Amino acid sequence: MGNALSQIGMSVVAGVLFLMHIISFGDFAVASSFAFTIFSAIWDITNALTKVKSTKKLREQTAELRKKMANTDLNKTDAYSVTVSGLKAKYKEGEDISYPDFTIKKGQKVLLVGDSGTGKSTLFKILLGKLKPEAGQVAFFDKNGQALSLDKAKVGYLPQDPIVFPASIKDNIVMFNDKLTNKLNEITQAVQLQPDLAKMPAGIDTEVDLKKENLSGGQRQKVVLARSEIYEQPFVLMDEVTSAIDQTATERIIDQLLQTDQTILLIAHNFTPELQAKFDQIIQLKSKKEGTEK
Ligand SMILES: Nc1ncnc2c1ncn2[C@@H]1O[C@H](COP(=O)(O)OP(=O)(O)OP(=O)(O)O)[C@@H](O)[C@H]1O
Ligand SMILES: [Mg+2]
I want to staple 228 with a disulfide (CB 3.0 to 4.6 A). Which of 13, 30, 132, 207 is the partner? Predict the structure, then answer.
């Protein structure tokens, strides 16, 4: 029984590795909750396997998963900059959300601010191609300044709720790519994770337990930030990624992010004026009642 279980454990890991070699896991590890879907699916498959003791279902589900993955980032090109004009969004039941025009140049660090419900996360959905704009244009550009249409542009994304997997903290950061292990020290330092790791008996090898929630909200955010930074995505949208991290660590993390070559659009509440002033640009969203002027 023990042996059977450890074999199932191995098949999970093998499954993950297998799927990762089909497409570059790093490309979408930070891109969406899609990666989580894959992990959940592998879990479901493994459970099904133990119950049914048949590989037919496994093969069918794997095939299904591969089909879904074919539609992801494979044919996309890294975006480095973006220009937005006349942009409006609308949900079925909701009112119009109008956005100010803006350009984010390659390597710029831009802060996106505005009260709750002003449409910050919605702007990310549009930039990620998940929500069709009601009006206006979004133009991305590649490394050489060539235009990229919305559906061809690859942009990294850290959602408001950090997504971690039932694996070690190390694997949550490198996403099973051992070639990146040599950067772990530098990265965990940059995202201020080292003091947290020092408190854990197994340190970076601590297994993330989704049921017990053995990582705090801030620690999860640091892990996800480390994942994003270790993969050096050229353009990343970050949705309140430091909201559960204390002020001092937040300032240090932002200082580190500001030193990278990445283009970053970051949503954040409650940054001090001093911290805000470090950004290249601030995009302010306002609710309709207040008007949409900057
Ligand atoms: N899936 C949805 N369907 C309908 N309306 C939505 C949906 N998502 C958001 N909205 C509405 O659109 C508006 C903008 O929401 P959005 O999530 O972009 O705000 P936000 O600026 O990110 O807020 P917060 O700071 O609270 O995260 C809100 O009025 C919200 O109720
Ligand atoms: Mg939001």
Answer: 30
